[in-house]
Write a structure and sequence with these properties.
This protein has 33 helices and seven strands. The radius of gyration is 25 Å and the shape is globular. With 733 residues, the chain is mainly α.
């Protein structure tokens, strides 16, 4: 697996929980104006107020060109703080008008008005969040530290507004008599639940403390993420000539580009996963591998200004207090309530089902690695920095497979074509590149997305290369969600972190990188295809343990011969990947499955253990890691996929906190879901694809399990996941 963080708009994610935040990664399609009463509330959101008074600020103007895309070529760091302050003031006024409306609450003057409010704040937050994730600098980081607690306080002032919640609660208690449409009823249900979970039913004294906690947490999340970035960018490993002589040319080129990106001479390895992992796989120099491995796993744990150990304790203490205030036993119980899993115990149980067969497979893999070391006269036991290198040696021996050879057929541009082709065959959408839409970095590309009827339904931004100032991993976010009220199309952004080649050279990626590319487009399509009445229900605004399903199911198409034969062609000759090589690639797809699953599950178990701990202030992070890992007889050579001090999923925000298990939960769904196409005998079966489209387009208009069973016709089975990961035999045995 790769890092797959979808909520790249960090500030916006904190922002308007349950308050009509239109910056959620979301959606599109042909939409209807929801209600004729919408014009009753438009006056509250018409141009004016503090934002309109800003002179020379791009956020003060309506963006009418390019489907309302942000003018990224005009926006500067100095524009953000005035825009944030003005937009928060305007939004506060809009919310106050709704809360104090003397008229009895109706869907139109309360819920719909909330959906229409805060649009300027959503615009500012979306642009800012994407820049701080993808193109950060010292100025933006300073603004982020200042504005994050402001946004958290603003959000709390809304969700803890007693008058506003009274109106929402009145509607909720009388919902059966309101004659609401299905989506109106769903929006009321989701909004009410979100307000309750955000403390709306607390006493006045508790509300004050709750708001303090949210504000403090927002600052801690920002600092954690900035520390990870700072520690990562502080480190580099300069490669001597003798080391370069033993590396593939693509690795040498990437190391040279990495040095240039940091204004350095020579060749370096960085702690970006796309740099360090290929080095660990290909370098025969064991001493250098150990240095790189330790650097990678010790991010945030170096006792310097970027150390994250105390931040972890502080975050966990506040989260536990917050959950207990809301009546939950722990943060883990709070976060799983209302999801598909429902309880942390159910999530842990699923992980346990996979753990023991995965561990057994990992022991077999370790034996193979040690046998090769011994056969070569190596007088040492395999360690973590040996695993990837010798795994590739074993893979090459067993499957006669050289990753460098495979990469010759995996040109990034061709893989982009492959994922677009898959999208067209499944859903009828086409991607048309635009070169006239402003972007925030020259590497960013933009496509206009059309439906089968030729109508523009979205803009899709792709930012594929690693660089300083960009966070690690891969994720999907948006500049704007699909809005069924206004008819605005979604503006969706995918980020990856591939090594950028030298000028004129192809960007050759690994098979795992190509899988990540498909994964992120799955998230992107969840936003692009969204066709909901309200932005709060659009696209990826679904349960955390369901949101990965659309992304993970799309990965399966990359593995199909029909796709690889068409798009996996040699970057120089244009010849398709030979069938025998293709067969070896697919045969090796479950190779190293023990390592991959154990590494992931270690992080999943730790995530839950942290958030179930009864006294987090007392935690010694490193000792606790060791305790939890040893409790399941973990292999010392396989630590957590994300060590705690750089575990962005868990500690840089709330999206995956006590929710990292969701990748495995979604793994059950995606393997079972793709089996529907296999059963139909056609990976592009139109009827099955139409049912899948209803999931991608439906957002949060129905509960997640209902959405899945509507597609599959039944609840999911874990068997396809275990079979596809090569683990079924051990379970049955």
């Amino acid at each position: 697996m790769t890092d797959r963080l979808i909520y790249g708009v960090a500030a916006a994610a904190l922002l308007l929980a349950a308050c009509g935040d239109t910056t959620q990664p979301a959606a599109n399609g042909e939409t209807e104006t929801v209600t004729p009463a919408a014009e009753d509330t438009v006056e509250a959101t018409a141009p004016g107020g503090a934002m309109a008074a800003l002179e020379g600020n791009p956020f003060a103007a309506e963006w009418t060109e390019n489907f309302g895309a942000p003018p990224l070529d005009q926006i500067r760091e100095e524009h953000f703080m005035p825009a944030f302050e003005a937009a928060m003031a305007d939004h506060a006024a809009e919310i106050d008008a709704i809360a104090t409306n003397p008229e009895p609450p109706t869907f139109e003057n309360t819920l719909l008005a909330m959906e229409l409010a805060g649009r300027d704040l959503s615009r500012v937050s979306a642009v800012f969040g994407n820049l701080t994730s993808s193109a950060s600098n010292d100025e933006l980081r300073a603004i982020q530290r200042e504005v994050s607690p402001m946004l958290a306080g603003h959000s709390a002032s809304i969700t803890l507004n007693a008058q506003l919640f009274e109106r929402i609660d009145t509607l909720y208690q009388n919902r059966a008599a309101l004659g609401l449409t299905d989506q109106q009823a769903r929006l009321l249900e989701v909004t009410h639940d979100n307000f309750v979970r955000a403390g709306a039913q607390l006493s006045e004294e508790q509300r004050e403390r709750y708001a303090e906690i949210r504000t403090e947490l927002s600052s801690l999340y920002t600092q954690f993420a900035q520390n990870e970035l700072g520690d990562r960018e502080l480190w580099s490993l300069e490669l001597p000539q003798e080391a370069l002589d033993n590396l593939p040319s693509s690795m040498v080129s990437a190391a040279r580009s990495a040095a240039r990106a940091r204004d350095m001479e020579g060749h370096i390895i960085t702690l970006d996963r796309s740099s360090v992992e290929p080095f660990l796989q290909t370098s025969p120099d064991r001493d250098l591998r150990e240095i790189a491995w330790n650097g990678f796993y010790e991010r945030g744990n170096n006792g310097n200004e970027f150390d994250n150990n105390q931040l972890i304790r502080d975050i966990l203490v506040l989260r536990r207090e917050q959950a207990r205030m809301l009546g939950f036993e722990s943060w883990a119980h709070y976060r799983t309530a209302g999801t598909m899993a429902e309880t942390p115990e159910a999530a842990i149980d699923l992980m346990e089902q996979v753990w023991w067969p995965a561990r057994q497979r990992a022991l077999e893999e370790l034996a193979d690695i040690q046998a090769m070391i011994d056969a070569e006269g190596g007088d040492f036991e395999a360690e973590g920095w040996d695993w990837r290198y010798y795994t590739e040696r074993v893979r090459a021996e067993r499957y006669d497979l050289d990753p460098a050879e495979v990469a010759q057929y995996l040109d990034l541009d061709r893989m982009i074509d492959a994922m677009f082709y898959t999208s067209e065959r499944l859903f009828g959408v086409t991607f048309h590149e635009r070169h006239d839409i402003p972007v925030y970095h020259p590497d960013v590309r933009v496509w206009e997305v059309h439906n089968a009827g030729g109508e523009t339904i979205a803009l899709f931004y792709g930012d594929f290369f690693a660089r300083p100032g960009k966070r690690s991993g891969a994720w999907m976010s948006s500049f704007r969600a699909q809005n069924g009220i206004t008819g605005e199309i979604p503006l969706i952004l995918n980020n990856c972190n591939y090594n950028k080649p030298d000028e004129g050279e192809p960007a050759l990626i690994s098979f795992i990188d190509a899988s990540t590319l498909f994964h992120e487009l799955g998230h992107g399509l969840h936003g692009i295809l969204s066709n909901t009445d309200f932005p709060s229900l659009a696209g990826t605004a679904v349960d955390r343990d369901f949101v990965e399903f659309p992304a993970q199911i799309l990965e399966h198409w990359l593995e199909q011969p029909e796709i690889l034969q068409r798009f996996a062609v040699h970057h120089e000759t244009g010849e398709p990947m030979p069938m025998e090589l293709l067969e070896r690639v697919l045969a090796a797809s479950t190779f190293n499955a023990g390592f991959e699953n154990v590494e992931f599950l270690n992080s999943g178990f730790m995530d839950m253990a942290f958030h179930l701990h009864e006294d987090p202030a007392s935690i010694d992070v490193q000792a606790f890691e060791q305790e939890i890992l040893e409790s399941r007889q973990n292999l010392r050579q396989i630590p957590m996929r994300h060590r705690s001090t750089h575990f962005l999923h868990s500690f840089s925000g709330e999206g995956y906190a006590a929710g990292y298990y969701s990748y495995l939960w979604a793994g059950v769904l995606d393997n079972d879901g793709f089996a529907a196409f296999e059963e139909a005998g056609d990976i592009f079966d139109p009827e099955t694809a139409q049912r899948l489209y209803e999931v991608f387009s439906g957002g949060n208009t129905r509960p997640a399990m209902e959405m899945y069973t509507g597609f599959r016709g039944r609840e999911p089975s874990v068997e396809p996941l275990l079979r596809n990961r090569g683990l079924l035999t051990e379970v049955e045995g």
